[in-house]
Amino acid sequence: LQRTLALVKPDAVLSGHAANIKVDIEAAGFRIISERELRLSPEFVKRFYAEHAGRHFFEGLVDFMSSGQTLALVLERHDAVAAWRAMMGPTDSAAARGTFPDSMRAKYGTDGRRNAVHGSESVDRAREEIRMVFEEFTEE
Ligand code: ATP
Ligand code: MG
């Protein structure tokens, strides 16, 4: 079994989709191992998404991800990293509705930035992200 980090982003929490997203996750065979609701700081988001520093969407991403409550979930399943990435769907929710209408981003997101969910890219990165969100991050 493998673990990955899922984030229900502020748009989806604010729209009341968190409970339905958890139902979909468990229906897909994941076990929710840990759960934490938190409001990410801009400083934390900049570290979490450091790979995108300097991209045209970076400032908007930092503002969005620190705009409200986020629900963090540790998911466990066979092949969890790839399975959750596939279930999320393409980055742009509007595009996802055309190509992957059953995906999380198609069902629960809005556009290219407000796309409802995050998932780790690799097993190593999942371990790192779980540590960042569940052990290191503290709210003021
Ligand atoms: P995530 O890393 O959040 O799981 P992802 O891996 O599908 O998403 P990335 O390329 O890593 O996509 O981008 C990180 C996040 O930055 C996206 O999920 C989205 O919120 C935002 N983003 C990416 N590209 C754009 C864009 N062109 N315009 C606006 N926001 C964007
Ligand atoms: Mg990414």
Produce the secondary structure layout.
Elements: E1 2-8, H1 10-14, H2 18-27, E2 31-39, H3 42-48, H4 58-65, E3 69-77, H5 80-88, H6 93-99, H7 104-108, E4 117-119, H8 123-136
Antiparallel strand pairs: 1-3, 1-4, 2-3
Bound molecules: adenosine-5'-triphosphate and magnesium ion.
Adenosine-5'-triphosphate binds next to α4 and β4.
Q: State the end-to-end CA separation.
A: 35 Å
Any idea what the CATH superfamily is called?
Nucleoside diphosphate kinase-like domain
Helix content range of the residues, please?
40-55%
By DSSP, the count of extended strands is 4
Shape: globular
Mean residue pLDDT:
98
Number of domains: 1
Q: Beta-sheet strand percentage? A: 15-25%
Bound heterogens, unique: adenosine-5'-triphosphate, magnesium ion
Gyration radius, rounded: 14 Å
Order of helices and strands: EHHEHHEHHHEH
CATH architectural label:
2-Layer Sandwich
Multimeric organization: single chain
Main sheet: which strands, in order across?
Answer: 2-3-1-4
Give the count of helical stretches. 8
Helical/strand content category? alpha+beta
Low-confidence region ranges: none
